[in-house]
Amino acid sequence: MTRGQTRTELIELLDRHGVSPSKRYGQNFLADPNIVSKIVGLIDAPAGTRILEIGPGTGTLTLELVERGFEVLAYEIDHSLRPLLIEVIGSRAVVRFEDATKVCLAETLSDEHWWLVANLPYNIGTPLILDVLRHVPQIEIGRASCRERV
Fold it and tell me: Architecture of 7-148 per CATH?
């Protein structure tokens, strides 16, 4: 099982690929392995469950999902992250370099149930979640008790 990217590892990875978080996309990359572990630990679904991830960023959450046996389809708007994500994730998950807010997810996802797991940029979080809740019946609504929340 992975342990996520530490802040130092994240900085080295970004430097190696010549990229940095984009204000335009509201990027905030996960740099705390404990948070990544807690997020994935809240998923009350069996291995093999299909996960839709919006904004995989540097792939730390994506990799943890894959390592725990989930099938991941991720949407990343930032094409500059392509080489970085290939290095981190390889072919272990499907990453589509498209704007998830412009994709008709109800048509894109199979009829099976999916879970939405993401470290969403603040500027698209609320509209995207509301759109998914209204129009994408394939997405399961997970529940966590107050004590389990990150």
Answer: 3-Layer(aba) Sandwich (3.40)
Determine the Cα–Cα distance for residues 36 and 130; give it in Å rounded to an integer: 24
Burial of 150 (C-beta count, 10 Å sphere; 0-12/13-18/19+): exposed
Q: In angstroms, rounded to a whole number, what is the distance separating the alpha carbons of residues 13 and 36?
A: 17
Confidence of residue 146 (pLDDT cuts 50, 70, 90): very low
Cα–Cα distances (Å) from 141 to 36, 134, 150, in that order, read 19, 12, 17
User: How far apart (Å, rounded) are the C-alpha atoms in residues 82 and 87?
Assistant: 9
Q: Return the closest-CA partner of residue 96 out of 124, 68, 133, 56.
A: 56
* Core vs surface per residue 74-89: b (16+ CB within 10 A) or e: bbbbbeebeebbeebb
Return the bridge partners of 95, or none: 74
Nearest of 97, 46, 104 to residue 74 by alpha carbon: 97
72-113 per-position pLDDT tens digit: 999 999 999 999 999 999 999 999 999 999 999 999 998 889
Relative to beta strand 139-140, strand 71-75 is: unpaired
